[in-house]
Queue: 2 jobs
Job 1
Amino acid sequence: MATYPQHLVRHRVLFDGTPVIIRPIRAEDSGMEQEFVRHLSDDSRYFRFMGSMRELPSAKLKTFTEIDYDRHMAFVATVRCEDKELEIGVARYVAIEGADRCEFAVTVDDAWQGKGVAGLLMISLEDAARAHGFKTMEGVVLAANRKMLKFARQLGCRCYREPGDADILHVELQL
Ligand SMILES: CC(C)(COP(=O)(O)OP(=O)(O)OC[C@H]1O[C@@H](n2cnc3c(N)ncnc32)[C@H](O)[C@@H]1OP(=O)(O)O)[C@@H](O)C(=O)NCCC(=O)NCCS
């Protein structure tokens, strides 16, 4: 199993002053990650997974939490809640085979959106992708996902449509 990159753990503060930890995901987070996905609104889950699943299938959950921190990296944002660690956001990239590009996605719990969580996650994710030699991060966003498209533009992404595909936008960030 890959060594946990402890040096990437960050203590940060949200726009409203809430302390938050941004840290690489670990295998032990699988329960917390599943709870996070179950707790998303139908809209947020649909925008992230482009399907109607209510929770992650076990193989996908394993893939999402047992990562190599190199070709696949994921950061979670967590807060303390009644003495437990609660996941409020996650961002990940996965390498695209044979290229210096990776695909990314970011999701924040509905109750925690608009507080800077995604911005903090993306700072860590971009730094990690750059450190691992990636030159470009790309993503696919549903055209109806106005929040993500606005956020992507604020990150500096180029957003474009492929001809004939009205429902999807591609977002691309040079690192
Ligand atoms: C899209 C999504 C990830 C945004 O997450 P969020 O945590 O609400 O975003 P943030 O709070 O970090 O950003 C909120 C605002 O602060 C800005 N901001 C955040 N960090 C910033 C930074 N470091 N510098 C400048 N601005 C920043 C954002 O651009 C945004 O600006 P706005 O207030 O003008 O809209 C969230 O709505 C979500 O999870 N949606 C459902 C899942 C989804 O669609 N995922 C995308 C799949 S590809």
Job 2
Amino acid sequence: MKNLLSKLIQAQTTADKGELAAAEIIASELKRFGIDSRIDSWDKTRANITAQVKSTGRKGALLFACHLDVVPPGEANWQNPPFAAVESEGRIYGRGSADMKGGIAAIVNAIGEIADSGTKLQGDIILFGAAGEETDSCGTKRFVRDYGWLPELAGVVLPEPTDFEIITAHRGMLWLKVETFGKAAHSSTPQLGVNAIASMKSILNELENFKIRFEPHELLGECSMSVNTIAGGKAMNIVPDKCDIGIDFRTVPKQNHLDIIDDLQKTFAKLKQKSPQFEAAVSVIRQVGALETDSNCDFVRAFCSAVGITETTAVGFTTDGPFFASLGLPVVIFGPGKPHLAHKPDEYIDISDVEKGVEYFKNIIMKFLS
Ligand SMILES: [Zn+2]
């Protein structure tokens, strides 16, 4: 298991390197347990992996959905090289160790041990490893588009780092690009042009008091908004004809992303009324809905009893969970690793947590599928 985790970290599955190497490592590990898998690869290095452990089919299948990719190590200095998988004092260090290669190593071993034991399952185990969860969810979108071959599913488990808390809700995200368009002119005669940066200034002023329509959520709180990028202008002596900003909204369950876009467009219309030369547009860069699984549904109650925890809770980060929820499936996030270490320098996972993860996942499989 430790060996698998190290190899997965060393595979360096950032968006530019792709996930294919990690998919191949998982495929050969599953092969050792006699489990076949299918790698779906595109653009040379991008890859999803799917494996199915067949059963009598009397019960609904369990889908364990992981992501193979990691975020880049970032600019900060790491005490150990981020892709060396250094082991020290019971921990394995490296980008992706917690988010979420520890979870992958745990579920692969749990499935392998159950297959090895010869246990007769009443429902299939489906293991899915996705590309691109950290960037554009390309892998999960691809999987969900082509899910017709799947057996009937009882539910979905995401082995993300939750430190063994059961997560049933998280906020969604909506990344918008807002552009303003002006007219270029020599800056010695700015009156002949329309300054796109000045137009953006009026939008930024409006955003100070922008009212977002949502109902606060008891666990997740409010929808947040943050303007995180800005770009405009090409040269010191040209009136800029373009400016753009990037806004990150973190939305709550039941909130409609289209309302935000609609309200922004109304703001643009108001500004255009004041100044006819004003031109602006908004486009979606990325969006993932919020997740909210009914914590009293049968699947979650059975899940709680399988792991011996009664409470479910919510987290701040987002996952690919909502794509599976859109298929009408209950989704639970549960796995080894401290969530606060994700995306940070010196990310690590306790080896004992990965071992605990194997036991938890075996219990979950036996509870639902035996
Ligand atoms: Zn993750």
